[in-house]
Amino acid sequence: MSAATRILTPNFYKGSPQEAMETTFAVQSQYYPDHNLDLPNSNMLDFGMCLASAKESRGKCSSIPATERGMICQRAADLLANAWTQQDLDNIVMLQGTPIRSVRTQAAYATTLMRAIGVGTLDCYLPEGNILYRDSQDGRVALLPNEGIAAAFLPPNHVAEAASILANAVMAGATIIIKPSQHEPRTAIMTAEALTKAGYPSGGINVLHWDTSRPESASYTANIIRKTNRHIYMGEAESAASILAGAAPTSRSIIFSTGRSKAIVDQGCDLEKVAERLAYGALHWTNTCVATKTAIIVGERDYNTLCELLSRRFNDANVGDPLDENTEIGYAPTLILDQIESLVNASRQFDNAEILLPYERISAHQMRPLLMSVNINDPESPFATQEMPYTLTLVKADSIDEAVGFVNSAAKHAPEQRVMAVSIYTPAKSLGEYLSRDVNCDAITRLRAATICHNRPSIDFSPYLPHEAKDLVAFLSNPTNMTEGR
Known about the structure:
The structure is a single chain. This protein is α/β, with parallel strands linked by helices. Helices cover 39% and strands 19% of the residues. It has 16 helices and 21 strands. Strand 13, helix 9 and strand 14 form a beta-alpha-beta unit. Helix 2 crosses helix 6.
């Protein structure tokens, strides 16, 4: 890709790419100043044509047999896997700062999810099912009904989120309009094209862009909300409440607001594997809110061993240009790195956290990975309540009960005051086996989390984790292994 690049990403409705009726607007990379993305500046005419196309497709979409819907997702996964170009991947890197090797992994995961959703086999089971459907004694129950039209608003999170939502829409026989992030819009377009080519009716999958910085954009958002029946929002709860304020009382909104992911490491684990997965979850930086940044380790011996193993892994991580295939530590927003630097300096001054590796700022938008430690009695520490790029905070606990208590206390002090997912690392082969011991089940029942990922980093499931804390008591009374692969 040349140093100076402009890429045009169209709308998608009527089953094909569409230019805007008015003009385009540019989104500039904060990391590569010469890189710009041109997007359609949609107006009410574009909205009207998109909505008309969606309405016309509703009957066709809902009448497709369930088995054929699954086949559409599987065919679309094959099409999407072959559609990614180096320019597509580089574009995501240049807009988000995420290393190319991570973006390539996310793109592959998008196709894996589409196939899994299509055949109804996911590697993880959740207390309330995944984003849009759940399993029950009566079979699959769609949480995204095919009556009316659904609208989804996506922030620049994991690349696979658009693929997950659109595949679930197809499996429900629904009609949907997506407003993707201005900083990662390409995946939604590619997925919409793949599903349409794979056989989903023209108008069933739609993608619209508009410049959210313009004053009139609020009226565009309100228009979409008023004229659709189901709403999906992924991002901050406050933003969701503002956007969805104009929704009709009869409509339904599914809000996935930001949380804070934690990991608990019980005694007796394979610590080499745990260190590998903790490093992956901490150093896999995107804007996603389920990368684990805090690990609570039970037992002093395991804590000391993991400190040593993680220090080696962090020291060996390659820092460099995100477009370089060898880079593991890419770029992050300058403002966020400034905040991290201030917190590190404060910790040195007030001795309220231990820096386990020397802190080094490389540039305005890059630093070496940071390994920290905070005391079990300090759940208010910003290193435990905030999610920081390329950072992992370790906490030593004396028992699993104390570890759960720290997670719950830290959740109360987090900006959003919710924990979305917790990864639990144990020597057991499954979550059910681990919970068969009453002491474990009793502690975990009190855990404030939406989902438990057993021996797997929660970021693996970020595209379809429910982002709200739920009561796990009823679920844990009949525990299910949620993360073991087939």
